[in-house]
Amino acid sequence: MKPFMDQNFLLRSDAARTLYHDYAAAMPINDFHCHVVVREIDEDRRYDNLSQVWLSGDHYKWRAMRLNGVPERLITGDAPAYDKFLAYAKTVSRAIGNPLYHWTHLELQRYFGVSEPLNEDTAPAVWEQANRVLGDGLTTRRMILNANVKTICSTDDPADDLRYHRKLREAGDFPVRVLPSFRPDQALEVRSPGFTDYLRRLGEAASVRVTGLDTLREALASRLDVFDALGCRVSDHALSAVPYAQCGEAEADAILRAALSGETLDRRQEEAYKTYLLTWLAGRYLEKGMIMQLHLGAMRRVNGAMTRSLGPDTGFDSVNDLSIAEPLGRLLNGINDQGMPKTVLYCLNPKDNYVLGTMIGNFAEGGLAGKMQFGSAWWFNDHRDGMAEQMTTLANLGMLSQFVGMLTDSRSFTSYPRFEYFRRILCDIIGTWMEEGEIAPDMPRMGQLVQDICYRNIERLFER
């Protein structure tokens, strides 16, 4: 029996072990899509206990705890911190096969020096050891630096004031690039009950009164300039369904004005407005040399009662099964007619892996390797099987060597071992191919390729 999650965890061949230990392990991290709170980096937050680190906002853990029958009071309620931690310890010991099991133990090893499995029996000692390490100075910044992170791209609304990004930039005392990402989802949700209130807030941020399409574009362009000045290199859009309906400027303006006047819009009008605005925004990203990210296929806030009680992003989302191939192809073709920015496509439903794996080839551009990307296994797919399936699909259909690799998509500052998890899986795949004679046994060349995927490819795409 192999040791529990030792230095060769997930590395099933000599080639895989060489690729990981000699090439991948020491590569820096560019976390180009996450949801960390930048204020906590600026203030270098200190934590009182492990529950604050792990359970204060992680809906992955909350979801698992509910599935394990834990009462909500011990998840998001007012229970004592240790009781919540103990409930999670009991849950994770039963979560075999779930990536939380691996992530949790990697975090315990890398941050807290704990190598024993977490369960209700070991929980008291783990709690004491982790809290001791936190008390000795494992702050937010130290977590980031310990993980060899070079770049963090937070997720920010155009109406956000970005004050903590400014403060970090002005202080200049933190060696990690902390950059905003432009996520204008609320400006596209024309049928949302809060749409007009949001446009009012966006207009205030841009010193523009939004009354129609011209002023909306002015406000968005103004805020994008502010993001760009603070180093923004990526945008992001979350699309449950891929919109496509032909729409010109006049029609988009009429739809927007109707929404602002309180009229009820139908789905075709929504798709037309979104198609126009997404295409226009893509043109702005191209002008600034930014990367456009499209996250496709989440069914959000399915449990209405719990969402009303706890708010969004609390563990009540799932995979959608809508057809995306035809509308995505038409949307991207319309964008391409004006010029395609560097683009990363993510799908939440693995049934769409081949759709994205082939779609990126339609808009690849000679002279810029990796301009179109099939993004890493996302959310419900960022486990060993999902990552392996995404990477082998990409290899089968495209160029794995040009892949931009992993990101955390996380709110937690202890989540960086997910990069290690990804890198071990990557090295195991390529190492297996080498061991089986499927690819040339050229370790230096394959080692460089692994390093490209781990770090250099996304660093290159960041360039203007």
Number of domains: 1
CATH-assigned homologous superfamily: Metal-dependent hydrolases
Q: Assembly type of the shown chains?
A: single chain
Overall shape: globular
* Beta strands, count: 9
Strand order of the largest sheet: 4-5-8-9
Q: What is the name of the CATH architecture? A: Alpha-Beta Barrel
Largest β sheet strand count, sense and barrel closure: 4 strands, parallel
Radius of gyration: 23 Å
**CATH level 3 topology:** TIM Barrel
- Report the helical percentage: 40-55%
Determine the number of helices (DSSP H or I, runs of at least 4 residues).
Answer: 20
Could you explain the architecture of this structure?
- This protein has a single domain (14-462), classed as Metal-dependent hydrolases (TIM Barrel, Alpha-Beta Barrel), CATH 3.20.20.
- It contains 20 helices and nine strands.
- Helix 1 crosses helix 20.
- The protein has helices at 14-24, 38-42, 50-55, 59-67, 81-93, 99-112, 123-135, 140-146, 163-171, 185-188, 195-206, 213-229, 249-260, 267-287, 304-310, 325-338, 353-362, 384-397, 417-435, 443-462, and strands spanning 29-31, 149-153, 177-179, 234-239, 291-296, 298-299, 318-319, 342-347, 372-374.
- The termini are far apart.
- The longest helix is centred in the middle third of the chain and has 21 residues, at 267-287.
- The chain is 51% helix and 8% strand.
- The mean pLDDT is 97.
